[in-house]
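Consider the tokenized backbone below.
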């Protein structure tokens, strides 16, 4: 098989997508990125995250504002570019929101993937890295979690969409030998690029722990709400496997390397550190690293959350040659650098307001 040249990145303007684009460019790939800005910040020129990715790497990115639910639009992009492989990040991803708006999640995540696969097939592009999630494992039967752990007993709608897509990919690769797919099950991505130029800038109230924590540290929010203090864990708070977003980005470059050199049909890998960290532990590391104080407020557990989850990433080490490099301290340090350099996140698109006086604007 030949080395890939052009990689299409869906959801490329988002948090994980933009960090992955930096690693792809630095690894010598040409990047075509698309995003509909459902989870990403838009400014007057398009994506501030991708503009900064160009600044970091000194390399150009071809970007389209596009939506996977608009099939003709995506088809046109494939017509214009000779895409060797797709990295598919684009998805709605908030657990809480998914429980409140299940149809939105099924429509966006499942139909978007269906459209993408059909367009890829019609353009003879059969190589994909899929952004999956450890949520497919549900409440773990044992820890740490290997890739052979049962999937499907999911506790939330977001996780179910990832599980259904994984099942779709299984059926597709069994039916048609041309497909060559790696599904990466992420654990909990945090941190930011060490330059401080790109990072996580949530567009919705349903946000991840670290951006919320940083807002409290900056004095923009009064307290950090911790959901659940009565879990069966040493300190009562939920335990997760936090992974630096740049380690995650390297995992995608490693996956591309395997796809370009081998026909593996479909393979699944966990991307995590192999270490569980409780919410309280993460808060205390963040406080120590940033020299700030984070007041906590405890509320009831959220629907769909689980007790504890961390990875066994031995398979990724053995087959992808990938291991994590960054500590929890570095995750906190890099995120704090991003947040203090960009206290309001990325520059936002200015909504033009029209003032009407006496019926005339």
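A designed sequence for it:
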């Amino acid at each position: 098989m030949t080395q890939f040249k052009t990689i299409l990145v869906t959801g490329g303007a988002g948090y994980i997508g933009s960090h992955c684009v930096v690693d792809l460019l630095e690894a010598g790939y040409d990047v075509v990125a698309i995003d509909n800005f459902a989870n990403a910040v838009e400014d007057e020129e398009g994506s501030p995250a991708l503009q900064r990715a160009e600044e970091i790497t000194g390399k150009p990115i071809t970007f389209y504002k596009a939506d996977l639910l608009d099939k003709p639009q995506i088809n046109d992009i494939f017509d214009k570019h000779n895409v060797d492989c797709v990295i598919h990040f684009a998805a709605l991803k908030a657990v809480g929101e998914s429980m409140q708006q299940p149809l939105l999640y099924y429509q966006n995540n499942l139909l978007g993937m269906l459209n993408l696969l059909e367009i890829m097939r019609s353009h003879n592009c059969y190589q994909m890295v899929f952004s999956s999630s450890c949520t497919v494992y549900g409440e773990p039967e044992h820890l740490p979690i290997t890739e052979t752990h049962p999937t499907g007993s999911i506790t939330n709608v977001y996780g179910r969409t990832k599980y259904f897509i994984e099942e779709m990919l299984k059926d597709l690769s069994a039916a048609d030998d041309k497909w060559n797919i790696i599904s990466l099950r992420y654990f909990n991505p945090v941190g930011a690029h060490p330059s401080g130029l790109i990072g996580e800038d949530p567009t919705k109230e349903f946000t991840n722990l670290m951006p919320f924590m940083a807002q409290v540290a900056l004095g923009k929010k009064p307290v950090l709400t911790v959901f659940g203090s009565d879990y069966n864990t040493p300190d009562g708070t939920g335990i997760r496997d936090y992974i630096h977003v740049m380690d995650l980005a390297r995992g995608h470059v490693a996956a591309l390397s395997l796809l370009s050199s081998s026909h593996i049909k479909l393979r699944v890998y966990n991307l995590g550190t192999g270490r569980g960290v409780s919410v309280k532990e993460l808060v205390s590391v963040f406080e120590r690293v940033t020299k700030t104080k984070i007041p906590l407020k405890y509320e009831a557990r959220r629907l769909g959350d689980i007790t504890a989850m961390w990875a066994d990433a031995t398979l990724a080490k053995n087959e992808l040659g990938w291991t994590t490099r960054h500590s929890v301290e570095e995750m906190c340090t890099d995120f704090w650098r991003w947040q203090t350099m960009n206290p309001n996140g990325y520059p936002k698109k200015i909504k033009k307001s029209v003032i009407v006086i006496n019926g005339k604007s």
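Residues 6-341 form a domain with the Rossmann fold fold (CATH 3.40.50.720).
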